[in-house]
Description:
Blueprint: E1 3-5, E2 25-28, H1 35-46, E3 50-52, H2 53-61, H3 65-72, H4 74-91, E4 95-97, H5 106-111, E5 117-121, H6 124-131, H7 144-162, E6 165-168, H8 174-185
Parallel strand pairs: 2-4, 2-5, 3-4, 5-6
Antiparallel strand pairs: 1-6
Helix pairs in contact: 1-8, 2-4, 3-4, 6-7
Amino acid sequence: MSAAPNPGTPERPGGPEPSAEGPLVVLVGPPGAGKSTVGALLAERLGVALRDTDTDIAERAARSVADIFVEHGEEHFRELEAAAVEDAVREHRGVLALGGGAVLRESTRRLLTGLPVVFLDVVLADAVRRVGLDAARPLLAVNPRQQWRTLMEHRRPLYTEVARVVVTTDGRTPEQVADAVLDALEPTRA
Ligand SMILES: Nc1ncnc2c1ncn2[C@@H]1O[C@H](COP(=O)(O)OP(=O)(O)OP(=O)(O)O)[C@@H](O)[C@H]1O
Ligand SMILES: O=C(O)C1=C[C@@H](O)[C@@H](O)[C@H](O)C1
Ligand SMILES: [Mg+2]
């Protein structure tokens, strides 16, 4: 099984909520999991728009995510990110891809409770192959393998905590991952 209901998902009283409010799908996971790529495919399949909080932040700040990190530091970026996620969850009814570190904020994790959140999981080798030495990912700019491993040790429990389902992306094309996401969410839809 490559996709499984997440036993760690907090139960809402009365079970999962129908998605009349809030995004249809929220994608979380580490850099290289494919949130932006798979998010675009899911949006196409569902006939809805894709919103990506990294894009929202860059547009609002009129500079790239990497430049925000360099000019103002990670903490400032996390503030902008928390606000961007809050706005997107409130306003967006399509597919929502979050930045890799959005789950670090406790307030953001709380906001995601009860939403159809999918953790796109990936092993180190595939993630590093996908993101390489990409300068657009400031946290992976130096020693990406070690950085990614350390990030994931810290974040895996957080991704798991917020996720309704976990979908493995290793050895799958983005199209196959999109299929797996839809299959995994189907039984959880009210
Ligand atoms: N299942 C997959 N198989 C092979 N390559 C993939 C897969 N998913 C994504 N990729 C490739 O990996 C790279 C990273 O994907 P993407 O930007 O979607 O990741 P992300 O999760 O949004 O990362 P970030 O957290 O940095 O925004 C892209 O070049 C994309 O084409
Ligand atoms: O994993 C992370 O902390 C990040 C992932 C990207 O989506 C961007 O939000 C930024 O590069 C930070
Ligand atoms: Mg992305």
